[in-house]
Amino acid sequence: MSRAAVVCGLGAWVPPTVVTNHDLAERLDTTDEWIRTRTGIARRHVIERGQATSDLAVEAGRRALASASDNGTDDDHEVDLVVLATSTPDRPCPGTAPTVAARLGLGAVAAFDVQAVCTGFVYALATAAAMLSAGTARRALVIGADTFSTILDPEDRTTRAIFGDGAGAVVLRSGQAHEPGALLGFDLGSDGTGEDLITVRAGGSRQRSTAEQVHAADHFFTMAGRAVFTQAVLNMSKSAQTLIDRVGWSESGVDRVVAHQANVRILRAVGEQLGLADEQMVIHLDRVGNTVAGSIPLALADAVTAGDLRPGQRVLLTGFGGGLTWGSTALIWPDLTLPAPHAPTLRKEQA
What we know:
The chain is of the alpha/beta class.
């Protein structure tokens, strides 16, 4: 039987500080209605001064390890690989993953970062799964964590409304493709001609190697909203369809799609392209916003806690992000328990 990486633990964390749409409306030219109508977001969590991406990654990782232990498949010290997907590392150098591994007490394990922005978690899953299938590692902790509040223009009502901070993680073990939880395949892609659509212009080697004056705004995140919307729907839909065909499923056989939580209109448009009903699309961004690499595992944890994701269901994960990058994977959802509470979030607010 073919070897595969099997999901055996899940955890998530968001910082406790909440910023509601009404909070933003007090400081910016916006309203709760404007934000909800365009994004579907009502609230988001942000880190406090002095906190960093590693703090969220450690909390999510700890909960994923506890989940794996509770499910009788893992021990914290058996993890021999940590892959962290993030676009907001603690420092430009070194990577944040070794710090996370050390703080979790995992010892001298292999640990590195993956940078694919909002597709980062899927890319990190693919990387860890390949290493497990090759026998390079036996158990992996895969984390998606970002703190975009640290790179947003405080005066930009659009990006401030969209993004929140958060982290989610899974534990993977080496197993067989027929097992529940096995990652059944991947579809990954990129288009570097779209690098300017989702970007932070300053701070990299290209900016630092020129004599051009750096504007303060170049240190903040920017996004070409309309173009990104079109590209996100197109590429997530195509990638998801490619993966569905590759694993031999049909659209009607997909129980849940957990897509990158970018915008509720993007999620519904992807569902329409795939011929899926709204209830098949897991939506979590209303309470946490776009948490970038953390969005897919955060949505998974929330869906499990709410009972919307159950053992035996066919689940498709798909993401789109800066680069441009996109990717998808699929699995039969395993029987997992999560430590309670998995994160200090609230269930959907009443409108």
